[in-house]
Write a structure and sequence with these properties.
The complex is a heterodimer of chains A (about 350) and B (about 230). With about 350 residues, chain A is α+β, with helices and mostly antiparallel strands. Chain A has two domains: about 5-230, P-loop containing nucleotide triphosphate hydrolases (Rossmann fold, 3-Layer(aba) Sandwich), CATH 3.40.50.300; about 235-355, Beta Barrel (OB fold (Dihydrolipoamide Acetyltransferase, E2P)), CATH 2.40.50. Chain A is about 25% helix and about 35% strand. In chain A, the strands form four sheets. Chain A has a six-stranded mixed beta sheet, with helices on both faces. In chain A, a hairpin with a 6-residue loop joins strand 13 (about 255) and strand 14 (about 265). The longest helix of chain A is centred in the middle third of the chain and has 17 residues, at about 165-185. Chain A is globular and about 65 Å long. By secondary structure, chain B is mainly α. Chain B has helices spanning about 10-40, 45-60, 60-75, 80-85, 95-120, 125-130, 135-145, 150-165, 170-175, 185-195, 195-225. Classes of the chains: A alpha+beta (about 350), B mainly alpha (about 230).
Chain lengths: ~350, ~230
Amino acid sequence: MSDLNIQLRLQKASFELNIDRVLPGSGIHGIFGASGSGKTTLLRCLAGLESQAVGRIEIGEERWLDSQRQLFVPAWKREVGYVFQEASLFPHLNVLGNLKFGLSRAKTPAAQVALNEAIDLLGLDRLLERHTSELSGGERQRVAIARALATRPKLLLLDEPLSAVDQSRKNDIYPWIEKLTSELKIPILLVTHAIEEIARLTQHLVILERGQVLCAGSTLDLMSSLDTPFDFGDQTSVLFTGQVQEISNEWNLAKIAFEQHGLWIENQNFSLHQMIKVRLLAKDVSLSLSKPQDTSIQNLLACKITGLDQAHSASQCLVQLQCGSSRLLAKITKKASIHLQLGVGMQLWAQVKSVAIAQ
Amino acid sequence: MFEFFLEDSTLSAIGLSLQLASATTLVLLVFATPLAWWLSKGASWLRSCVSSVVAMPMVLPPSVLGFYLLVSFGPQGPIGHLTQLMGLQGLNFTFSGLLIGSLIYSLPFAVQPLQNAFEAIGTRPLEVAATLRASPLDTFLHVVLPLSKPGYLTAGVLVFAHTVGEFGVVLMLGGNIPGKTQVLSTKIYGHVEAMEYAQAHWLAAMMLVFSFFCLLALAGLRKQARPTRV
């Protein structure tokens, strides 16, 4: 496993990219931020596509950029896989030709194995003889990812690989990308502007603003902390992974282990003991000082208030709750928080109206 | 009535035209490639200048171009002086002279289709190739060349046809010497001057049909070269 050491500066027309970070050498790192915040530029610098970038880039023992020593390894000599926003397959080659393009140039003995693995991993064996124009958007992106993987990269860069793919196709590709994390021991950087993708796919998160790192850390922590200097808006949520404990065929519900209570969610063909990643949106959590007796909401959790963010918006405030060892966020109106006289340390009940499946 | 086709001077004029056009096409496709590539890589003051010089033969009367070449190839001209120093014969009234004239005269017809083809490819396929470990030369040979095939075909047809149809430069530089520098277009001129209208008619008709098929081929190529999504 090779950590990725990035010190970069690059002046662009609308912002200056200025980044100094060490990213852990495995898992998917979400690169998030508004458009024009430098997400794609960061990836291009890492790949060697921005010749004006200065600073230092190291992956493990390898150094790709060191301006002080006049070192700039050109893109074609960096062991990096890059998947562009649109699939960018070569139109003069068929699927197999595209896949083999990088393979024959990578000069690693394991490359053929890597290609076969990539074909398996992304389910492409039926498409190999197809012409690129006969592929759907989702298939094109899968070919592009496999083509990048076949070179055995030390770093995989995905630049909004799903932005040109429609929603139903996205759901087809998510599992393939999730599989990459468990199968590959390399860092993957995923640029996206969709919080759903961050929540579902990434373990680490870097939020950029005007070319600078606004905050970085574990996706779970950043999304559930009041201190994160980024407003996820309606998407503010916490993530957790739980095991299916019980399935009720009568009501088509499944119970996921969560602290001592467990959470009931809609059964989507889950099997017993399956691990499921779920997302609790702050706007779907409401609070009650006493245990509600006659409510339609099934999921009631005893919690303690650990933080209050009154400045969240003009009318809303964000309440951070501790439930056992887990953290929850509730988004309620300021009016309600004053009315209930909420304060840090108070014990109360959280009602969870719905739970989104993140995986 | 067709016997004049078998005359030595007619056959040699046709042969010379084809020879000149083939040689010009081959040489230009090779030499125009780096020039067109460089011109397609963005805009600068120097590029605009070079681009204008390359396009000049399109607007200049061929006789003007022919005149300047004639003078510079002559014993007092810079190129003539050079050939003399090297112990070579002068270029005026020779096939080599014609070839050099044709290369300059048809240069824009090779450079512009290639430049357009290279510009249409854009930078993305080059970047993709680089991230797949292809060196710049490798990328040019295995990505740029296949993707600009329609541009090369267009340039080839245009240069060939334009060279066959060339008159002013050839007349100035070659002097219409039968068997040596007399090509089809100047041969027709010779027939007309000698009042041999029947012969002129036949050769002219040949050129007409040839031109038509060249343009037909070009239209076919344009259709083929419709932009493909990359």
